[in-house]
Amino acid sequence: MAAISDTTAHDPAAVRFAKQTANTLFSLLITFLGLLAVTFVIARVVPIDPVMAILGERASAQQIADLTQKLGLNDPIWQQFLIYVNSVFHGDLGVSIRTRDPVLGEIARYFPATLELSTLGILIGIVIGVPAGVLGATKPGSLRDQAVRLIGLMGYSMPVFWLGLMGLLLFYGHLGWVGGPGRLDSTYDMMYDFKVPAVTHMILIDTALAGEWDMFRNAISHIILPASILGYLSMAYISRMTRSFMMNELGQEYITTARVKGMPERRVVWVHAMRNVAVPLITVIALSYANLLEGAVLTETIFAWPGLGRYITDALLVADMPAVLGGTIVVGAVYIGINMFSDFLYRLADPRAR
Amino acid sequence: MSFLPFARKAGAVTLAALLLGTAPAALMAATPADTLVIAAAIDDIVSLDPAEAYEFSGLDVVNNTYDSLVEMDPISLQLMPGLAESWTVADDGVTYSFKMKSGLTFSSGNPVRAEDAAYSLIRAVKLNKTPAFILNQFGWTAETVDKMISAKDDTLTLVVSKPFAPTFLYNCLTSGVANIVDEVTVAAHDVGGDMGNEWLKNNSAGTGAYTLKSFKPNEGIILEMRPGYWRGDAKMKNVFIQHIPEAATERLQLEKGDVDIARALTPTDIAGLADNKDVTIAQDVGGQVYYLAFNQKNPNYTNAKFLDAMRWAVDYQGMADTIMKGAVIPHQSFLPQGYLGALDDLPYHLDIEKAKALVAESGIKDPKVTLSVRNAADRMDVAQSIQNTFGQAGITVELKVGEGAEQLKDYRARLHDATLQTWGPDYPDPNTNSSTFAENPDNSDEAKNTGYLAWRNAYDPGALTAQSQAAVMERDPDKRKALYEEIEKTHQETAPFILMFQQARNTGLRSNVKDFYTGGAVDLGASYWLATK
């Protein structure tokens, strides 16, 4: 009896899972500490004096000395780093120089706008990119394959800034199909805070929850263009990777076997091959998603989108380093988080990785 | 698992959303008829408390939500009564009496009393935020102000520390920090002795034409018209200021009519809008001046001939027209256009031959200038033009490019050789620029008088220091004006500064927008209450 209970306590699967989790958490911690170290060093090496940035041109020598003391800039570097790490782990990312509000609170307000835009962007990227890649792979060298590759190449090589402006000029300026920059028309934007309770800070969800359907439609008309542009960029990457993964799979013996057995081609491609393509594709999609979350900077600037990217850019232009670094930490943390999540999905999709 | 049905469904949903969204967008009218929609870059705002607001966008809002005792007419730029009906100065030259207008109310409905005026000024001094120094100049400090500012019945009494020029006080009272707040309302929102500072960041308690309905940093500001404004109700029911920092985006929205006013357009956008009959461009000047400064620790810059040579080697008009594309106008004295005593004539122009001759006369062989310039596109362009024209005159210019804050640190430590800088006036009185460009009470390194631009350049202005200090005490406004003109003239010809430009402001307006004033160089705020569309 004793022996049996012993084996259940040391169930190999459970132990492996616990080990894996511990490993994951440990590497997460190390990565995050590394991220903090990098941002800390950046803050110290950039030629921006935080004291001057706060006090500006008219500061007196006394004010400068007082603030240097207050910011702890006279302490030894290692001590400053420990204080920094400690405050970050307590959710204190410092106070923005521009607005004098806590950075964490500001990021909490801006990040949902980015999340909403990027999520819609990546959905568009997946919905178009995966089938496009498959279409190309099933008839390599054909006209449609060339078309997919050309469109992908354009998405790769066109600067998002240009794409965004041209998109605005055409779809908003000339054709009037979509709403302009900003999250809403000014008419709705003015009413927004008074009519829509801020639940998630994501405009599509909050307007839907509040039952403000006019506003919801207007919000869609504003988000659709920037989301499509982000979607196009990720589509370019996703379709190329899908194409190459799929071509690789279609050359495998089990595919030939399936075809010989008379399985319909559609089923061969979309079920048999796709199941194996999905595994590496998860990583590709996760990386694209992370890229959108951190890389929507220019899109957000052009579309006057009050998201994290623009928050960081605006802060950078006025040397508001606490805001820049706080934003960087959050982006880094999201990047780490998405990577972990994709690892998890990877294990789920691929039995060998379990 | 099959991917296809999912993809099909998702595609259909996306397409439906797209169609659903675009239909009303195409039908949406332009801006609401009762609302003035302004696109601007408002990320400079720190607070909308008048005792703290000291950035351009914040002062614009404060200018429309509050009034001060004495005001600047937005059109003629002359002093005019605000909340005070009349004012007198006693023979001692330090005691001022302001008689308050009767029957005025704050947006809360509370009456405007002399006590509110006293409270507001004392509050601004005691809060001691950035713009408090404007009031400190009159000897009002946290310790003294209670004794120097008092209210009785309908009269506010201000005692100042020295018999200053009365115009100096009046001009300073027009600045944002001297706006009058509603004591009863503000005191009710005091948290931990902050005198309502936190509350006023997002609320207003003034007499202005508008009240602050909402402020979201880096997103937008909504102002609501306040019925019964003492100058007459504002024409537009709401003003909505959207944070749109990207100029190309602003331009597109202005052309589409999604905004009525675009305030962050670049010269390129302005040029591009020239043929659009739905848009007009309003031109105005701002208070900022662009200048070159030379550190006299380098003996070359104490050579009068050499300084003169450089003054003739700058292409003032050419740069304003081409590189800056109308974002500046040539201006060669330290007081911006619109200020009492400003010199608007332009004695210098590009004359390479004259500059060459003066270099030869100076006796300096192969002169070299190391010009510090911040890494912004327009600054770099100006610096390169100077490098080019100085080069033609035989003066080698080496550019030292760097980040703004870092260069400022060098400048304040007198470590630069020469630098390209801008300076914006702090308050609407000539003393603001005269004291910094033309005064230096102690030129020693130990003095660390970093607040004086003259000190930063190791420039001892000699008699100018005393003249400028006398000008701020001159009680006769005409004589005061003449004094500043004289100081500027001497400064222009002898100081190691070359004043080049004054900022120009180009605002894009929909053609139906009328009577929108950006405030010029002196009045540091836009006026929304007169605007119509």
Describe the fold and architecture.
The complex is a heterodimer of chains A (354) and B (533). With 354 residues, chain A is an all-alpha fold. In chain A, 78% of the residues lie in helices and 0% in strands. In chain A, helix 7 (143-157) packs across helix 11 (213-250) and helix 10 (203-210) crosses helix 11 (213-250). The radius of gyration of chain A is 25 Å and the shape is globular. Chain B is an alpha+beta fold and 533 residues long. Chain B has helices spanning 3-27, 56-65, 114-127, 133-136, 145-148, 166-173, 183-188, 197-200, 247-256, 267-272, 304-311, 316-321, 352-362, 377-392, 404-412, 431-438, 453-456, 463-471, 477-494, and strands spanning 35-40, 70-72, 79-81, 84-89, 95-100, 149-152, 155-159, 210-216, 220-225, 238-243, 261-262, 279-294, 328-330, 368-374, 396-402, 418-423, 497-510. The longest helix of chain B has 25 residues, at 3-27. Chain B starts with a helix and ends in a 23-residue tail after the last strand. The chains are: A mainly alpha (354), B alpha+beta (533). At the A-B interface, helix 6, helix 8, helix 9, helix 11 and helix 13 of A face helix 1, strand 10, helix 9 and helix 15 of B.
Provide key terms for this protein:
heterodimer; A: 354 residues; mainly alpha; 16 helices; globular; disordered N terminus; B: 533 residues; alpha+beta; eleven-stranded mixed sheet; four-stranded antiparallel sheet
Task: Write the SSE topology.
The complex is a heterodimer of chains A (354) and B (533).
Chain A: H1 2-9, H2 12-45, H3 50-55, H4 61-70, H5 77-89, H6 103-138, H7 143-157, H8 160-174, H9 186-195, H10 203-210, H11 213-250, H12 253-260, H13 265-295, H14 297-302, H15 308-317, H16 321-349
Helix pairs in contact in A: 2-16, 6-7, 6-11, 6-13, 7-11, 8-11, 10-11, 11-13, 13-16, 15-16
Chain B: H1 3-27, E1 35-40, H2 56-65, E2 70-72, E3 79-81, E4 84-89, E5 95-100, H3 114-127, H4 133-136, H5 145-148, E6 149-152, E7 155-159, H6 166-173, H7 183-188, H8 197-200, E8 210-216, E9 220-225, E10 238-243, H9 247-256, E11 261-262, H10 267-272, E12 279-294, H11 304-311, H12 316-321, E13 328-330, H13 352-362, E14 368-374, H14 377-392, E15 396-402, H15 404-412, E16 418-423, H16 431-438, H17 453-456, H18 463-471, H19 477-494, E17 497-510
Parallel strand pairs in B: 1-10, 1-11, 14-15, 14-16
Antiparallel strand pairs in B: 2-3, 4-5, 5-7, 6-7, 8-9, 9-10, 11-17, 12-16, 12-17, 13-17
